[in-house]
Amino acid sequence: MKKVVTPTEMRDIDAFMISSMGIPGCILMENAAECVLREVQSAIGQSGGSVLILCGTGNNGGDGLALLRKLIIHGISAKAVILGEGKNMRGDAKLNFDIAKACGLPVKEVTGPEQLKGEFEGDFRVIVDGIFGTGLKRDVEGIEKQAVELSNAANAFKIAIDIPSGIDGLTGQVKGCAFKADVTVAMQYLKRGLLLYPGREYAGKAVAGSIGLLSGFPKELNEEVLDDGDIKRILPQRKPDAHKGDSGKCLLVAGSTNLSGAAFMCALSALRAGCGLLKVAVPEGLKPQFYSLPEAMVFEAAERDWSEPDLKTVKETLEMSTCAAVGPGMGTGAEVASIVGEVLASGLPAVIDADGLNAISSNRKLLGALHEKVIITPHPAEMSRLSGKHINEILNDPVNAAREFSKEHGCIVHLKGATSVTASPDGKITYNLTGNPGLAKGGSGDVLTGIILALLGQKLDCYDATSVGAYLLGCAADKALELLRCRMLKASDVIGALMGDSL
Hints:
Blueprint: E1 2-5, H1 7-19, H2 25-44, E2 50-55, H3 59-73, E3 78-83, H4 91-102, E4 107-110, H5 113-119, E5 124-130, H6 142-153, E6 157-161, E7 183-187, E8 190-191, H7 199-203, E9 205-209, E10 223-225, H8 228-234, E11 249-253, H9 260-272, E12 277-283, E13 297-302, H10 310-318, E14 323-326, H11 336-345, E15 350-352, H12 355-362, E16 374-376, H13 380-387, H14 391-396, H15 398-409, E17 412-415, E18 420-423, E19 429-432, H16 444-457, H17 462-474, H18 477-484, H19 491-498
Parallel strand pairs: 1-8, 2-3, 2-5, 3-4, 5-6, 6-7, 7-9, 10-19, 11-12, 11-14, 12-13, 14-15, 15-16, 16-17
Antiparallel strand pairs: 1-10, 17-18, 18-19
Helix pairs in contact: 2-3, 3-4, 9-16, 10-11, 12-13, 16-17
């Protein structure tokens, strides 16, 4: 897994490597330049080409000047343009400026718009952004803004050092304007702002490059991104002698007279994700719609829509289950809240989505019944209703919105979005970067609920079930099949194979 840090955490890490590990800042700068060098070489390839490096007067600019020296040593045509005067640089950045001047490297200092425009004349294969780092607090303006705009308009491959200039390293918000990179080389760890939109869009492909041998850092880094290897490690191995009970006795409470599709999609995804035994409780009249899904044990637990007598049926079924999901397509009837309350009171691992979340928002006492085995999966509007925060506050800072709610109510929160965020009560955050705009449609949330339910049945803890479920949902179909393998096989698929059909 890849660790993710805030700008403040990265400053602490830099200070630790310098003061406690004894790595001079200039060595860290050399290592940073080496990481960027590899990306420049990859972009240029065998065909060659020249490189333009844009440098601010801070440490990001110092990285750029160290990169210039390395490019020249490797025989790559390059020049650096400092947006300001080199004499205003400090510390290790000034050291690299002095070295570049002493070596006669092509370094230009520009302070005016016409002069800067002239520096962009030429056929540059790559433009490297070393203007601002993660500490930017103001909007980009003046000559820096002009440099960003000229870069974005140029027909060149663009690489950002640590973070695209103009992107807030904490929130991913654009500070006036921002460099549009094809690749961003983050130093040591990915920065949070690279993962959250719109910063993620400006970052392009974000990679992390090691700049120091970090060990013994006293603060726990509790934000991360999972990859295929993590998913394969977390998913439990299926034993050759496994039986259906080993993969959970899952209960899905879902559907209403006019919303039957949500229950069906949720049930189908639960079976595809490896659920052992699945019981689906639906209102009267919905059972025939499951005839094409014979693996699910469907029973009518309600008359037309949910009402008081259904509580007993749901409660009895919960006693025979190992995990549950409630909410998809249930409607907004008054008794939905009571059914959600029964699921919460059971103490079972449970995922609550859609109308289950609406029921909690409308019956605030249910917030007190949330516990560590409960997973809620709101989109930003649902999160706004649950938390009482304005939706813009959630969109601008989804990490803290999820983390604060999780800590306050002691449950797992999966806040959906282009970059979804999973939070645990102990402060842990996992970002999910898989998926595409095709998931922005009705039914995707129901599929996610089914996947998480199946993973709970396979005895993943609530946090892992949520993080892995989000990853699998976002995977392209072929990748999801590869990761799930035998878990996605339904009994009727075997019948189809016997009849000569294919999956």
